[in-house]
Amino acid sequence: MPATETLNSAGAARTLTLNFGPQHPATHGTLRLVLELDGERVVNCIPHLGYLHCGFEKLGEHHDFNQFVTVTDRMNYMSPICNNVAWHLSAEKLFGLEITERCKYIRVIYAEMSRIADHLVCVGTAALDLGAFSAFLYAFQQREILYSLFELGTGHRFTCSATRLGGMGRDLPPNFTEKLRYFVRGLPKVLSEVDRLLSRNRIFLDRTRGIGAISGGEAIDWSLSGPMLRASGVARDVRKDEPYLVYDRFDWDVVIGENGDVYDRYLVRLEEMRQSLRILDQAIDQLPDGPVDVGLDNKVVLPEKKRVYTKMEELIHHFEMIMPDKGPMSPVGEAYVPTESPNGELGFYIVSNGGKTPYRVRVRPPSFINYQVLPRLVVGRMLSDVIAVLGSMNVIAGELDR
Amino acid sequence: MEPATDIEQGLRRAAPEAVLDVHRFRDQLTITLRREHAKRLLGFMRDDAGLRFAFLSDLSGVDVVELGRAWRFEVVYHLVSFDHNRRVRIKTAVPGDDPWTDSVVDLWKGAIWQEREVFDLLGVGFRGHPDLRRILLPDDFADHPLRRDYPLRGKGERENFPVLGKPRPRDFVPLFAAAKEPNAGH
């Protein structure tokens, strides 16, 4: 961390300008902050972005509705399936497709598994940054089980690309629900261990309580969403208030905090995992049989590969889908479907002029919008609090810069 | 004035000449406004007791040059009302030869970075923005890549990027006088 000592703007006291990042273990990615320090106190904080800018929104104008799902994986790479689901919900809204019941349940199951994986990483690494190593290991061990389940279900551990326009890439494998239920039964014990390690830990409390606090009204003004908004006491969850998929069929609670500080954000994330387990439990019970996609009649779903090689109809269908300038043409219009991703409201705003690819794709990136409040939270506090606040915000650089 | 519950009627009553277009697609309401009135009406929508669109969910921009409209850009606001639990999409029409619109930073602080992003990627200015700099791209970048006339693979920025060459071993100054040739023994 190179530092230079200069006079501050008033010219009175000497302040230190510290370049924090872009390569620093506590930034969890390539974030860069320019901190102006008076002793250990932060006088000014300027975030610099764009180190991972890849032009995802521009790419969206050149990929069709199934190809772009692989790009959405790379946005919030901690919970890729939440991005997949958000992308195809917006795309299906644009097409006017009604997906099957089984597909809705499978998407809920994957999305909640992703939420748990994301929160586990956030809680684990936030504690690690504050010096608590054990919680990190407990969390990552559970995440490993989840990634094995993703691999079983979708074929990939990290960038799953699980959804397709009008359905899923593949159905759940036969033994998936038993393995998932085994995980759902086992996780509460680990969560309570993490809880016991951290929630009443003197050092953890001193480092997190009252740090980076923001009130509910101010959180709305800053467009915060997800755990950051709920920790400030605003009971707003897209899954509850604007239910998509089948979230209105489950019995679960929206978790809210009181003070909106680092500690409340940690508690909200911890409790949200328990609520996700409740949703998973009910979703496995209710999981209906049936097809996972809308079928071949709408001409949006690729036929089964085995039949493409052996049947003429399916071969023609396959070619009509994948040849250039052929395939599912989107209707003229625009659509936006909000979803609750682990970090907040995630949605894709798609504008279409009737082509095979969208005319414009806009991501509503929760990390980007949540991150801009950071200077407000850390100015006037100590340098070590920057780490605590950054860890509690769970900024994912891939989604931040896109 | 009594609270407006219908969004379109409320806007037409507040400023009849401001509404350019009202569009409904898949149950999602989109209202396009003239830029001269946009900020005042967005403030009206935030504060009116019947509307209460207090949450700015998303602010983005679209280059509509190929969609055959009378303007080049649209700045898109997705507003949410927590009190009445509904959403609306408001657009501001921005002409291409003079691309600016009024900043909504003093209505919602959450717009600060999102307006910077629209400025960066589309080149639409925001009048009254406190800190309008590029955000995702380097400060010396010349173009606005989300415009439709910008090619997908760029205009050669990647090829012509100034690269610092790797120093050759003989360019190193030996740290110690006794140091041998770096490649000796190989």
Please, could you describe this protein's structure?
The complex is a heterodimer of chains A (402) and B (186). Chain A is an alpha+beta fold. In chain A, 48% of the residues lie in helices and 13% in strands. Chain A has 17 helices and ten strands. Chain B has a single domain, classed as Beta Polymerase, domain 2. In chain B, a hairpin with a 4-residue loop joins strand 4 and strand 5. The chains are: A alpha+beta (402), B alpha/beta (186). At the A-B interface, helix 1, strand 7, strand 9, strand 10 and helix 14 of A face strand 3 and helix 3 of B.
Order of helices and strands of chain B: HEEHEEEEHE
Distance between the termini of chain B: 88 Å
Q: DSSP helix count of chain B?
A: 3
- Using DSSP, what is the number of strands of chain B? 7
Q: Fraction of residues of chain B in helices?
A: 10-25%
Oligomer: heterodimer
What is the arithmetic mean of pLDDT of chain A? 88
Measured distance between first and last alpha carbons of chain A = 25 Å
Name the poorly predicted regions of chain B.
Answer: none
The assigned CATH architecture of chain B is: 2-Layer Sandwich
Trace the largest sheet of chain B across and list its strands.
Answer: 1-2-5-4-3
Overall geometry of chain B: elongated
* Class computed from helices, strands and strand pairing of chain A: alpha+beta
Largest interface: A-B, 43 and 37 residues
Percent helix range of chain A:
40-55%
Q: What would you call the structural class of chain B?
A: alpha/beta
* Overall morphology of chain A: globular
